[in-house]
Amino acid sequence: MVLTPGPNMIYLVSRSITQGRRAGIISLGGVALGFLVYLVATNLGLSVVFLAAPELYVAIKLAGAAYLAWLAYKALKPGGISVFTPEDVPHDSPRRLFTMGLMTNLLNPKIAIMYLSLIPQFVDVDAGHVLFQGLVLGAIQIVVSVGVNLTIVLAAGAIAVFLARRPSWLRAQRYLMGAVLATLAITLALDTSLPTTPA
Q1: pLDDT the model gives residue 28
Q2: pTM score over 0.85
Q3: Taking a C-beta distance cutoff of 8 angstroms, is the pair 177, 5 a contact?
Q4: Would you tell me how many other CB atoms lie within 10 Å of the CB of residue 37?
Q5: What is the pLDDT of residue 199?
Q6: Whether pLDDT at 43 is above 90
Q7: SS3 state of residue 181
Q8: What is the SS3 assignment for 131-186?
Q9: DSSP-assigned letters across all residues of 105-145
Q10: What are phi and psi of 157, to 5 degrees?
């Protein structure tokens, strides 16, 4: 699940390539906080808002689809560049990096629904401390996610060098990533399903 390409991974890789590992790690901190926000909200029952107000879920989902479409356009447009292509961009401050990482994650409401759907299946009600169990289970997911993404952040530079020496691979990667992002954006935008409570 963590290895599935998505906005978080794209953002972290691009920041690591253009501004260095430190920027990628700071951005990852924002992404991790986004996971934590959704986890706490879910376990306190606040994610039920998405179930009670489907319009809010749809609005945030469409915002996420628009963001994915924008990333796809940047990859596929004439003269577009691969996410692994180093480029000179204005360096953002640590605060902005952290905030952008946080917002990238919060624009994906399916994280809350994922927590709402998955965590209850592993909670042992008879053991008590349901809230604590949910927080621990979610924390494990966050640790795995941060670990995988940290590896990607640290390896992004090496991947960029590898691809830079192979222009055809770099071009293929750009088109493949753009196509994946476009497909995700279209799928998300056309998805008419609404959040439901777990069976």
Answers
A1: 94
A2: no
A3: yes
A4: 16
A5: 44
A6: no
A7: helix
A8: HHHHHHHHHHHHHHHHHHHHHHHHHHHHHHHHHHCCHHHHHHHHHHHHHHHHHHHH
A9: HHT-THHHHHHHHHHHHH--GGGS-HHHHHHHHHHHHHHHH
A10: -65, -45
Taking the CA atoms of 4, 2, 24 and 138 in sequence, report the sign of the dihedral they define.
Answer: positive
- Amino acid 146: pLDDT: 93
Query: What's phi and psi for 183, nearest 5 deg?
Result: -65, -45
Which residues does 22 contact at the CB level (< 8 Å), separation at least 6?
none
Q: Identify residue 174 by its one-letter amino acid code.
A: R
Q: Which are the contacts of 90, defined by CB distance < 8 A and separation ≥ 6?
A: none
Angle between helices 21-43 and 7-19 (to 10 degrees): 150
How far apart CA 64 and CA 10 sit, in angstroms, is 14
Q: How far apart are the first and last CA of the chain?
A: 21
- Which tokens is 191 given? 């998805």
- Which pLDDT value is given to residue 18? 77
pLDDT tens by residue, 81-120: 665 665 555 678 999 999 988 998 888 766 776 777 677 7
- The mean-pLDDT minimum among 28-32, 55-59, 68-72 falls in 55-59
- CA–CA separation, 178 vs 156, rounded Å? 18
* Amino acid identity, position 198: P
d(CA 14, CA 85): 8
